[in-house]
Amino acid sequence: MNLKAIRRCELCREDVDELARYAYKTALQILGNHEAAEDAIAEAFKAFVKLSPFTLQRFEDEQHVLRFFGRMVKFKASDEIKRRSRQVPIDHYDLPEDVPGAVLPIRSRELRAALGLPPGAGLNDVIRALIEGADLEGLEPEVLQAHIVEGVSAAAFAARQHLRDEGQVEVIKDRMLRKIRRLLGLGRNANFWIWRFD
Amino acid sequence: MERGKNMNRLPTSDRNRVLVLSAAVGGGTANPEEKAELTALLKEYPDLSRDSRLVVEETKTFEDDSFMETCLRVLFGACSDQELADFARTCRQDRTRWHQYCRVRHFLEHVGRASAAFSKMPESKRQPSPKTLDSIWQKFREIRDKPSRSQRNAGRP
Questions:
Q1: Fewer CB within 10 Å, N side or C side of chain B?
Q2: A23: which residues sit within 8 A by CB, 6+ positions away?
Q3: SS3 labels along B20-53
Q4: CA–CA distances in Å: residue B116 to residues A14, A57, A130, B119
């Protein structure tokens, strides 16, 4: 990879191929089909050629360029799903007028079926994708898994992780939920967040 | 200084009322009368507008985060029947919330399906084919060679 040329935004065929190969799996994992993955990579290149000289000059080495481009592709792929999710009509899923909670058709059993998972399967794949997509880090994935999904109380979680008190768990949870809201396009500063790479 | 003077002149009860009403607006629970009352109070004490706006935004963010947590708990089957019933009631009363839930669920279903499809793919299919790389290169060249708006405008009379 010719780093000097990349800093001048002059990418040759080999550089483009290397970046595309590096990011292709990520796009495919998020989007699930080859055409959409190809489009996401093309969109990322479109953004890449518009990067300011200041940003380009900050590339330290090849790995930095690859990671940077990989994140761009990830955000473009997430954008595509967000765009599709925004088009979901309000009556896409049924909210029955008067149904007891126990049989409301939004339980995890139905979600598993919708995801094509067997009834006994966990939602680990979905949770993993959420953790990856929202860039959850530190204790945030643990908070999602244990505190929200498994229902471990904030106090028990704080004790398990040797945190000072449950207030710290709340702080981590708030940050994590905001990241997820942004990932899903529900945050007010979603677009701003998308372009914060570092 | 002006702001401080006005704050001192404002009766505490009115100041508290502004905060309570702002929180209600941010939380989406204010009725039309309460919204009108807040507007009237802010007209009388314009120096409280900024504080009111902050309270509205903070409350809205808090409510959005709480609702997102509820959505995830509902979708992952991690909530009690009572929570589920409350969630259903909220969604029936506030269609915006229901739409948000639909979007979250659609997103999760999509990533779940995509992730499952990816895990079933053989390693060879996870790499871009030479045809795909050609296509990406062509698209890149088109993007790179496309004249910018300023360049296009420069050619106009």
A1: C
A2: A41, A44, A69, A70, A72, A73, A74
A3: HHHHHHHHCCCCHHHHHHHHHHHHHCHHHHHHHH
A4: 31, 39, 14, 5
* Block residue for tokens 């049924």: A94
Which residues from A are below 8 Å from B68, CB to CB?
177, 180-181, 186
Interface check for A45 against chain B (CB to CB < 8 A): the answer is yes
- Enter the ipTM: 0.72
CB atoms within 10 A of CB A51: 16
Choose among A89, A85, A84, A69: nearest CA to A24: A69
Cβ proximity of A39 and A27 under 8 Å: no
Rounded to the nearest angstrom, the gap between the alpha carbon of residue A59 and the centroid of all alpha carbons in its chain is: 23
Cβ atoms A127, A144 nearer than 8 A: yes
Q: How confident is the model at residue A101 (pLDDT cuts 50, 70, 90)?
A: very low
pTM exceeding 0.80: no
B56: left (phi over 0), alpha (psi -120 to 50) or beta: alpha
Distances in Å between the Cα of A68 and the Cα atoms of A159, A176, B20 are: 37, 22, 45
In chain A, where the domains are located: 3-87, 108-184
Distance (Å, rounded) from C-alpha A11 to C-alpha B74?
Answer: 47
Phi, psi for residue A169 in degrees, rounded to 5? -65, -40
Q: Is A120 exposed, middle or buried (0-12, 13-18, 19+ CB in 10 A)?
A: exposed
Q: Which residue in the set A11, A82, A148 is minimally distant from B78, CB to CB?
A: A148
Indicate the length of chain B as a whole number.
157
CB contacts of B88 in chain A (<8 Å) are 95-96, 99, 101, 104
Query: Token pair 């993955």 is at which residue?
Result: A37
Domain formed by A108-184, architecture: Orthogonal Bundle (1.10)
Each residue's pLDDT tens digit, A137-195: 899 989 888 888 788 888 999 999 898 888 999 899 888 888 888 777 775 543 333 33
Residues whose CB is less than 8 angstroms from the CB of residue A147 and which lie 6 or more positions away in sequence, other chains included: A153, A154, A157, A169, A173
